[in-house]
């Protein structure tokens, strides 16, 4: 509001700061002009022209000067605007002091309240706010902030306590500053308002004091009070209850205290699972055990009040707590406390139901297990029904059991049900009839024991047992096949030695040899699944291994699939067989590629997993320990849930006929298990699959002796691969060959004899001991099968070492070395050669062993 500049004499409503002009000055100028005109008349027309020109020039100079002074703001004209008497009256009668200042901070207008507040007798005495309260250290900072806001054209409000104003007691003032207008010539003017809020502050102080008294009364009342929100956070706890429970009140309201921190057992489930209709206010009376910070229990009775919003959402509770631990000799109180503890702390869920299946009473474990609403007149019918706690398919069984209990049948067989709600959960129900002595309509008692974990363990055991049985079968088949393949490969070696490459039958023999090698590869995969293959573990850094594999993996997965390898920092070492681990990664990568025919992304990630972090994965059968995790993830088609339990079984494949043997994942499973590791997978159809491999962390000095303590046999290589040039495989010595397969024994003996060795043959262990005794001191080496009738290989070694302690021994077997090594005497040294083997491999091991190693 722009106020018109008016003189003190003309304004009876408001005060403005005068600008120094007066009507007398205007009259004086007018008289001077009239006098000049009369003087010109007296001078005469002849002489008046020059004087008129002089007078007009003077007036023109004064006019130009006035224009420039007005434009510069040095000269202002009063009465140029129409006055606003209504606005002026409103401002003048306002209870708040109002001051209007110009851009330079000079007062333009001050109403009566402001003049009274600042002791201004007239318009000339009006001072700006900065000058009125200058020197007062209590409000100088607030005034500075207000003045800065005024200069910047901002709005600001401050409340300050002023002492010594008008010789009155201390008062509270509210200062507010704002621009007079947003635009125009008044945009740089400022409106200051000053209000006396002393009485308002006194009322606030009184209310605060009353609130403090109420809080003090509530805190130290002889009963406990608390409030909990819908998420279970305790938002209020009075001092009495905090003292009972030995809790710090500073934790309350800051998210540091939950309902489970003060309620023992599953009692919190009873409080959090109360259901009600929209707009309803429900009060439940509950007998529970609270727990102190030290873990002691405190029997209490709760009057738990919850209001529900219009959408049915429960609000914060208002709960009264009565301490029932006082021993006043009342036997009824003591009996109620004992029953309450027995009922709510039972290891099984308990509820009573009426004939229609509505829940009458329930204990805390039942509320936690079934997540149903407590008994209440206004609660939804479905929420109070026992039938809502079980899956729909099992409700007829529950109805039948309740009907039997109502009919008075004493022995009702327990039965298993699937629980309703999210996830797959199961429980075993026991139902018994009950006499309704209290008249509340109870017809049956239902006891529920959750069996979800038990079922999971049973399924895991069944799966493990099945895999073990299949593994034993696969291992037995592989052993027999190894004997057959050894004979085939040995025979083909003889045929190849007897035929030149130009012979017509040479290529046919080579074809037999290559197929025999392929069959040997399949047998090795069967042995890997049955965990009976020979492992040569060594300490590895998986980061380096995966880095070396990266180029191979890129070639295997093709250009359509993007490979991303993420290495964890400071990976722990692991003890694994390098070649077997590489086979695991390659098999998983190939399967991922086949699951992404249109392209996608393959991610290999490694990380350390501490024993504490194992629980985060929630895998059944994964014991807490330190592991190195290898994750292989793809964005492929995923694995349907119905076949996930079968993918590690041998010969199970989802690929088309001829595109897979079904041994890839079974080989992975066997290798990981033989390495004492674990493999799990998560898959979602249409989104992809993630395999997680957990390998135990290797701690130096904590494990078994390394592979370097034993002699490794030469690796099996296809016969068409280049061998070392000019290898001399001939030798001399007497070899005792022990093999129960007559055909294989004859081929091995023929091959060794062709290289210059004298061969003694035995069909079993007993016959071998007799031959050794007949040629005592002449046998340089024993080559023996492991699995034989009457006497196995380890027993044969013990008996022969009694006859000749320095006797050298080579074991050959289709099983893994670890399968029989534990049956050997301590320190029993030997060389191992895995079946099937070629003639070159056999004579190489024989010559190497006779040459020096035991």
Polypeptide structure, described:
The chain has a six-stranded antiparallel β-sheet with strand order 1-3-2-6-5-4, sandwiched between helices. Helix content is 37%, strand content 20%. It has 854 residues and is an alpha+beta fold. The longest helix is centred in the middle third of the chain and has 47 residues, at 452-498.
Helix and strand arrangement:
Elements: E1 15-16, H1 23-43, H2 45-71, H3 85-93, E2 97-101, E3 107-110, H4 112-117, H5 129-132, H6 140-151, E4 156-162, E5 171-179, E6 190-196, H7 198-219, E7 224-228, E8 234-237, H8 239-245, H9 267-272, E9 281-291, E10 297-307, E11 318-323, H10 331-344, E12 349-353, E13 359-362, H11 364-370, H12 395-406, E14 415-418, E15 426-433, E16 444-450, H13 452-498, H14 506-529, E17 537-540, H15 542-557, E18 561-566, E19 574-577, H16 578-594, E20 600-609, E21 627-634, H17 664-674, E22 678-684, E23 688-696, E24 734-738, H18 742-754, E25 758-762, H19 765-774, E26 781-785, H20 793-803, E27 808-813, H21 818-821, E28 831-834, H22 839-850
Parallel strand pairs: 18-20, 24-25, 24-26, 26-27, 27-28
Antiparallel strand pairs: 1-3, 2-3, 2-6, 4-5, 5-6, 7-8, 7-11, 9-10, 10-11, 12-13, 12-16, 14-15, 15-16, 17-19, 20-21, 21-23, 22-23
Helix pairs in contact: 1-2, 13-14, 13-18, 14-17, 15-16, 16-17, 19-20
């Amino acid at each position: 509001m722009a106020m018109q500049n008016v003189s003190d004499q003309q304004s009876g409503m408001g005060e403005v700061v005068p600008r120094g002009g007066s009507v007398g000055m205007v009259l004086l100028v007018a008289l001077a002009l009239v006098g000049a005109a009369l003087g010109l008349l007296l001078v005469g027309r002849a002489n008046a022209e020059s004087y008129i020109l002089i007078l007009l020039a003077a007036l023109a100079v004064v006019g130009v000067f006035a224009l420039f002074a007005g434009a510069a703001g040095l000269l202002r004209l009063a009465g140029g605007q129409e006055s606003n008497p209504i606005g002026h009256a409103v401002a003048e009668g306002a209870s708040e002091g109002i001051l209007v200042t110009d851009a330079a901070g000079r007062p333009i207008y001050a109403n009566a309240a402001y003049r009274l507040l600042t002791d201004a007798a007239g318009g000339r005495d009006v001072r700006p706010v900065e000058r009125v309260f200058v020197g007062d250290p209590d409000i100088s900072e607030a005034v500075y902030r207000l003045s800065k806001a005024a200069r910047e054209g901002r709005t600001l409000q401050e409340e300050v306590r002023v002492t010594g104003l008008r010789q009155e007691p201390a008062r509270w003032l509210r200062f507010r500053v704002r621009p007079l207008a947003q635009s125009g010539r008044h945009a740089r003017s400022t409106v200051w308002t000053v209000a006396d809020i002393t009485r308002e502050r006194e009322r606030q102080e009184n209310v605060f004091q009353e609130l403090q008294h109420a809080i003090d009364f509530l805190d130290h009342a002889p009963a406990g009070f608390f409030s909990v929100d819908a998420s279970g956070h305790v938002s209020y706890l009075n001092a009495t209850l905090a003292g009972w429970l030995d809790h710090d009140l500073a934790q309350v309201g800051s998210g540091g205290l939950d309902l489970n921190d003060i309620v023992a057992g599953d009692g919190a489930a009873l409080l959090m699972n109360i259901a009600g209709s929209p707009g309803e206010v429900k009060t439940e009376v509950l007998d529970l055990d609270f727990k102190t910070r030290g873990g002691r229990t405190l029997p209490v009775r709760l009057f738990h009040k919850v209001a529900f919003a219009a959408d049915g959402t429960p609000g914060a509770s208002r709960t009264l707590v009565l301490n029932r631990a006082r021993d006043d000799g009342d036997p009824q109180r003591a009996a109620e406390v004992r029953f309450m503890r027995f009922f709510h702390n039972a290891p099984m869920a308990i509820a009573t139901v009426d004939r229609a299946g509505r829940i009458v009473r329930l204990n805390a474990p039942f509320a936690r297990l079934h997540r149903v609403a407590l008994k209440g007149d206004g609660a939804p019918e479905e929420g109070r029904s026992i039938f809502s706690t079980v899956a729909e398919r099992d409700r007829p069984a529950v109805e039948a059991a309740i009907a039997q209990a109502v009919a008075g049948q004493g022995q009702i067989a327990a039965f298993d049900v699937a629980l309703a709600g999210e996830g797959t959960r199961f429980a075993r129900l026991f139902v018994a009839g009950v006499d309704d002595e209290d008249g509340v309509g109870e017809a049956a008692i239902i006891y529920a024991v959750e069996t979800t974990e038990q079922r999971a363990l049973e399924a895991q055991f069944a799966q493990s047992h099945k895999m073990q049985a299949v593994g034993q079968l696969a291992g037995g088949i592989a052993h027999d096949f190894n004997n057959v393949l050894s004979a085939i490969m040995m025979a083909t070696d003889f045929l190849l030695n007897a035929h030149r490459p130009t012979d017509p039958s040479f290529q046919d023999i080579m074809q037999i040899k290559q197929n025999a090698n392929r069959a040997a590869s399949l047998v090795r995969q069967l042995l890997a699944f049955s965990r009976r293959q020979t492992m040569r573990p060594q300490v590895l850094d998986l980061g380096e291994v995966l880095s070396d594999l990266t180029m191979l993996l890129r070639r295997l997965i093709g250009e359509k699939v993007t490979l991303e390898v993420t290495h964890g920092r400071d990976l722990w070492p692991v003890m694994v067989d390098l070649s077997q681990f590489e086979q695991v990664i390659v098999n998983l990568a190939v399967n991922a590629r086949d699951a992404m025919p249109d392209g996608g992304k393959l991610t290999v990630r490694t990380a350390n997993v501490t024993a504490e972090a194992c629980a985060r994965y929630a895998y059944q059968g994964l014991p807490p320990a330190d592991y190195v995790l290898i994750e292989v993830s793809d964005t492929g088609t995923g694995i349907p849930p119905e076949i996930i339990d079968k993918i590690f079984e041998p010969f199970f494949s989802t690929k088309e006929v001829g595109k897979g043997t079904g041994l890839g994942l079974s080989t992975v499973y066997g290798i990981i298990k033989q390495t004492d590791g674990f493999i799990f997978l998560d898959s979602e159809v249409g989104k992809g699959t993630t395999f997680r491999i957990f390998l135990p962390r290797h701690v130096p000095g904590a494990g078994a002796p390394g592979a370097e303590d034993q002699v490794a046999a030469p690796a099996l290589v296809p016969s068409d691969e280049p061998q070392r040039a000019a290898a001399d495989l001939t030798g001399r010595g007497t070899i005792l060959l022990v093999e129960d397969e007559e055909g294989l024994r004859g081929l091995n003996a023929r091959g060794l004899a062709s290289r210059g060795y004298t061969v003694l043959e035995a069909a079993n262990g007993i016959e071998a001991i007799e031959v050794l005794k007949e040629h005592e001191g002449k046998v340089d080496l024993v080559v023996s099968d492991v699995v034989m009738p009457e006497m196995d290989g380890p027993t044969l070694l013990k008996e022969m070492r009694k006859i000749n302690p320095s006797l050298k021994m080579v074991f050959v077997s289709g099983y893994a070395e670890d399968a029989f090594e534990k049956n050997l005497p301590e320190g029993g040294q030997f060389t191992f050669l895995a079946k099937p083997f070629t003639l070159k491999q056999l004579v190489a091991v024989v010559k190497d062993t006779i040459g020096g190693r035991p």
